[in-house]
Write a structure and sequence with these properties.
With about 290 residues, this protein is of the alpha/beta class. It has 10 helices and 8 strands. Helix content is about 35%, strand content about 20%. The protein is globular.
Length: about 290
Amino acid sequence: MTAGLEPIVGRYLSLDFDGRRYRVYFEEAGEGIPLLCLHTAGADGRQYRGVLNDAEVTRRFRVIAFDMPWHGKSSPPQGFEREEYRLTRDFYTAFVVAFADALALQQPVLMGCSIGGRVVLNLAATHAARFRALIGLQASAHVAPYYDTDWLHHADVHGGEVCAGIVSGLVGPDAPGVHRWETLWHYMQGGPGVFKGDLHFYKVDGDLRQRITSIDVSRCPLFLLTGEYDYSCSPAETEEVAALVPGARCTIMPGLGHFPMSEDPERFLEHLRPVLCEIEEASQKAG
């Protein structure tokens, strides 16, 4: 086996936001139209390794995936030990915009999965003019609680293993074993209480059922891609969003689950590449 360097470059951004300083880690590859990627709850930007390493995408897009504070290589802010981490809609929405502004990204495409897909919908309703296009992966407006989140941060269980156990059923049954286990490994490495705190946004504070009807795709195109085996954001829930947002484009991806870009990168790219081509062509026509 020969060694080979991947084209991905990692850096840190020091970002002053809402009265606190955050040290934010991000990875990028490629050049062209900025494509900003948001990871799922409890995980980090490594989920987008397939997109970052895809030469067909990176020839035309500057792919950027960052770890939200508390996640991956992004540290919590000073004083985190005196508080409980709980992700809110307002913080998440504003932080994504602040990160894009800090990197001076001009009209980026924004793609997010799960909680990232949910915040994409909120940004479509509140900050559409900031983006060139929005791609929601596993994006629903709401999810009914279906398990007790207290077990995700509990002294009687191993936090990382119980988090991975909770999400293991959300991986599509056809996912290659190597990608399935890498996806679960990201969850096993999560910080104490982080997955639980993310689900505060996903299950409580991020209910967008009254907000998504204000989305106007004439201001910013919206693409919805959902795996057929997802029961956290089911195909029916994504189709419900599409029905409430005239002009939104909805695709149900056969064989995939809740983590399409991570659990089966090549199969996911078969669906993503045509969307990115359409966005690029529209940008060229717009001048």
